[in-house]
Specification:
disordered N terminus, CAAX_protease, protease, metallopeptidase activity, transmembrane, single chain
């Protein structure tokens, strides 16, 4: 279940000793499947809970519960910003504790496994500049080719939903970076995949996480964004830098889409 490895070439973090361990690649892949299941279970719990809440309200008012009517209300609610925030928080509450638990080893803390370590602060501004160039390119492409924002973003535009904004800016970067650029990156980086394979695989998986919410052009930009985050993880040796970039990206999106209503 565990194996020893040295840190990636060029990783500015401290080298692993022979007693330190990282997650075995197949072990990590197995837990990825568990995380995916928890992802869907979180959605189910929220939807079922909301349906139960509606049923309890009707019962308290002495009304006869119509399952079809309740199902229709639940379906309508599921597309609202509040429901999106609630479902993600349910997923967050299920996945994060499991992730922290499986990241602990006899000779290696969860912080080491997830690459939660300091990085040179002089790397921040260059990477912020890279992110700014990426966002500018995305904006130009969207305007130049008049890319359709899609139903998902249209639902969020101008909603000014504070809880969803907090989820997007804080919870999403935290959980997603710990999973993709933390746990999975650490597990696969020292295998035959190497850096290039790990970067590609984690970026593809990160993109698939957003499948169904965005169109193909948007998914292409999400993939490019994931590549930037993976490069930042490799160059800094820390998950904190990609987490910071992810936070900045989502903060920009929250202000522009949620509060200004610009698509």
């Amino acid at each position: 279940m565990e194996h020893t490895a040295s840190s990636p070439a060029g990783d500015p973090s401290e080298n692993f000793t022979s007693e330190q361990v990282v997650p075995a690649p197949w072990r990590a892949t197995g837990w990825l499947v568990v995380f995916a299941l928890l992802h869907f279970i979180g959605v189910f719990f929220y939807i079922a809970g909301y349906g139960g809440y509606l049923g309890a309200q009707l019962g308290a008012q002495g009304q006869v519960m119509d399952p079809a009517a309740i199902q229709a209300q639940v379906a309508a609610h599921a597309a609202t910003p509040g429901a999106m925030a609630g479902m993600y928080l349910a997923q967050f509450a299920l996945i994060l504790p499991v992730l922290l638990l499986v990241s602990r080893f006899k000779h290696q803390s969860a912080g080491q496994t997830l690459a939660i370590r300091a990085f040179p602060t002089n790397q921040i501004l260059p990477w912020i500049a890279v992110l700014a160039a990426f966002l500018a390119t995305q904006f130009i492409v969207y305007r130049l080719f008049q890319i359709d924002a899609g139903e998902f973003l249209q639902t969020l535009a101008g909603s000014k939903h504070l809880l969803l904004a907090l989820v997007l800016v804080i919870a999403a970067p935290l959980l997603e970076e710990l999973v993709f650029r933390g746990y999975l990156f650490q597990a696969w980086r020292n295998t035959r995949l190497g850096f290039s394979g790990t970067l590609l695989l984690t970026s593809v998986l990160f993109t698939l996480l957003h499948w169904g919410q965005y169109n193909l052009v948007q998914l292409g930009f999400i993939f490019a964004f994931a590549l930037i985050l993976g490069l930042a993880r490799e160059k800094s040796g820390s998950v904190l830098l990609p987490m910071l970039l992810h936070l900045c990206n989502n903060l920009f999106a929250a202000v522009v889409v949620l509060y200004l209503g610009i698509l």
